[in-house]
Amino acid sequence: MRTDPHSERCGSIDEFRNFRDRLADECDDLPYEIDGIVIKVDVGGVTVSRATLHDESEVERKDLRPGDKVRVARAGDAIPEVVERVAQGCGRRPKSFEMPKMCPVCGAKIVREGAYVLCPAGLACRPQLVGHLHHFGSRKAIDIEGLGKETARSAITHGSKPWRAPARARMTGAADSSNW
């Protein structure tokens, strides 16, 4: 897989700041637009790629908005937590985040169940169907070797037959989607 030649591993905050400053100087000459830098951070030996906000009320309580800089801390053995927003300058902040009213994939009206906001369409919503098929083939279910999330997504998206439920799958080979 090709990666951007501007990718760089930084071993300290000073190295990161130097990288950020160099990229800021070069960004006007890039053949594409950028609006930030994506970073992975090691927290006590754990690479943080996602952090929990628990639910919508946490986002509101912490007044978090798209593009905010945040402080992350370990909340337990493995789950990092967004602790707070870090103030940045005095510029205008984007509009507050709002939960969608409709499912962004299938268009069904969203329902609330306690702290959860869900799409009620079930298997008629493609990402839910992919999730069900992935679970169906997982070790916790019937343990189909090779039926990971990407294979499930590909089978649902590119399969020759319309999918309605994992129970319709007729599998004669591990991940041979031609038999499904």
Describe this structure in words.
It is a single chain. With 180 residues, this protein is of the alpha+beta class. It folds into two domains: 13-86, Nucleic acid-binding proteins (OB fold (Dihydrolipoamide Acetyltransferase, E2P), Beta Barrel), CATH 2.40.50.140; 122-179. 23% of the residues lie in helices and 14% in strands. Strands 1-2 form a two-stranded antiparallel sheet. It has a two-stranded antiparallel ribbon with strand order 3-4. A two-stranded antiparallel ribbon has the order 5-6. A hairpin with a 2-residue loop joins strand 1 (41-43) and strand 2 (46-48). Helix 3 (126-136) packs across helix 4. The longest helix is centred in the first third of the chain and has 14 residues, at 13-26. Mean pLDDT is 78; it is low at 171-180.
Short description:
The chain is built from four helices and six strands. The protein has helices spanning 13-26, 56-61, 126-136, 149-158, and strands at residues 41-43, 46-48, 69-74, 80-86, 111-113, 116-118.
